[in-house]
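Postdoc handover notes: sequence design on the structure in folder B. Input tokens:
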């Protein structure tokens, strides 16, 4: 082999000391990240017993602003000093750039369950400070390592150009690439001969994933080995697209309160066709806790007016659900069907009704888009006096599940109502408040004959 093909073989060159040092730095940064996430999770479990109001106060428990808050107020007793004005002043001194005001933070603290008090609070506050100090030290070391990695890495321009924009363009090209069938794929004119034979479908989603998955694995390996300093597949502000090999911090569920849902309903006032459509969609979302796609893709045949049922076809997991139409939602839907939808669709003899229950206002032949529904909900929520920056259908789903669970609906029934495969998933959605749990426990004790003893 060496005699006949030696000219094709390349000598194996060992990695340079700089490359090995860079690889060690990247691995150390990854290990410190694992350790930091574990400490944040331990701090969250500790605060759940000692200072519940601090959980979910800020978006991330391990962020610098959350560390500064817990350093200054490590216990619920320390936080009683805060008033809305004092909270606002403290946020200003810390350079807080978020949209929440001091009154909102103060309200969250005062409505949260009470934490530890008395001498026990002082001892547990020291534990909180220990966790916060360790997390802050790890964050500082991680930032130093990241700066060192950036200074010492020398990436070729072709590798550096592997940005998310390039990858998105590659995936888009795959989605539109025609299938090659009936001819030998190794032929130079295989695609032209396949297209000449007749109309051809594009690649399926499985085929696109088959093309992209090896590239993603290659990028992750290059990132671990130190050949890349950042993951081009990573999308910021998107939890589902983070590096799958790194654990993610536990964040509180983003649900909606009763006041939020009332603000959303108030923002749908009006008599225009669009107002009637949005009011009917919001009524269905709030009363059924359905997903975005399940509601916006409903068709006229999916509404059983005689039995007052809604049929959600092939939702998440391929399940088809039958859900009872709430009386309020039925009233809003019937008015929309009689007064609003005919004007949105504008069906004629040459262009028959496409059959979508909630068509787009811009194009009555197509259903409302996913982003259009999310933007509509946020706009209506703000019109009704809501203060959260974003308000999507999944927040409604979490809020409705929590309200149903806290008002007596058994977890098994709620799980079936929401279309979950098990109650384990429903527990993440439906967060029972201490007041609701206390009422359920008091009722159970009274039935058992233990009340008043």
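Designed sequence:
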């Amino acid at each position: 082999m060496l005699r006949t093909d030696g000219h094709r073989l390349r000598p194996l060159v060992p990695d340079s000391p700089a490359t090995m040092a860079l690889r060690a730095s990247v691995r150390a940064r990854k290990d410190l990240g694992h350790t930091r996430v574990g400490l944040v999770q331990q701090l969250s479990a500790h605060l759940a017993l000692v200072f519940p109001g601090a959980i979910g106060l800020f978006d991330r428990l391990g962020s610098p602003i959350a560390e500064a808050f817990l350093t200054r107020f490590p216990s619920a007793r320390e936080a009683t000093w805060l008033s809305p004005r004092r909270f606002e002043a403290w946020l200003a001194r810390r350079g807080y750039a978020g949209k929440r005001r001091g009154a909102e933070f103060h309200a969250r603290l005062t409505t949260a369950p009470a934490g530890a008090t008395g001498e026990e609070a002082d001892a547990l506050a020291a534990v909180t400070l220990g966790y916060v100090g360790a997390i802050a030290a790890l964050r500082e070391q991680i930032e130093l390592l990241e700066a060192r990695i950036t200074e010492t890495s020398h990436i070729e321009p072709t590798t550096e150009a592997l940005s998310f924009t390039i990858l998105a363009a590659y995936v888009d090209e795959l989605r539109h690439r025609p299938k090659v069938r009936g001819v030998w794929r190794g032929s130079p004119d295989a695609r032209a001969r396949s297209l000449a034979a007749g109309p051809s479908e594009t690649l399926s989603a499985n085929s696109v994933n088959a093309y992209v998955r090896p590239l993603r694995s290659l990028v992750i390996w290059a990132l671990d080995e130190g050949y890349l300093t950042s993951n081009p597949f990573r999308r910021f502000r998107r939890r589902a697209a983070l590096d799958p090999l790194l654990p993610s911090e536990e964040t509180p569920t983003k649900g909606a309160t009763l006041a939020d849902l009332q603000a959303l309903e108030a923002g749908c006032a009006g008599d225009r066709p669009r107002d009637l459509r949005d009011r009917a969609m919001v009524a269905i979302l709030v009363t059924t806790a359905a997903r975005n796609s399940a509601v916006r893709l409903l068709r006229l045949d999916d509404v059983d007016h005689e039995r007052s049922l809604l049929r959600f076809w092939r939702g998440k997991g391929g399940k088809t659900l039958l859900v009872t139409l709430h009386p309020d939602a039925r009233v809003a839907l019937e008015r929309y069907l009689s007064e609003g939808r005919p004007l949105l669709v504008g069906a004629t003899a040459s262009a028959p009704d496409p059959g979508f229950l909630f068509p787009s206002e811009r194009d009555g032949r197509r259903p409302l888009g996913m982003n259009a529904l999310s933007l509509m909900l946020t706009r209506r929520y703000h019109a009704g006096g809501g203060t959260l920056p974003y308000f999507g259908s999944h927040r409604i789903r979490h809020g409705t599940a929590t309200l149903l669970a806290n008002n007596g609906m058994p977890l098994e029934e709620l799980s079936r109502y929401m279309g979950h495969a098990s109650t384990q998933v429903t527990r993440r959605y439906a967060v029972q408040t201490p007041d609701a749990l206390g009422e359920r426990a008091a009722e159970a004790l009274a039935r058992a004959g233990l009340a008043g003893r």
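Context for whoever picks this up: The CA atoms of residues 55 and 237 lie 20 Å apart. Don't rerun without checking with the PI first.
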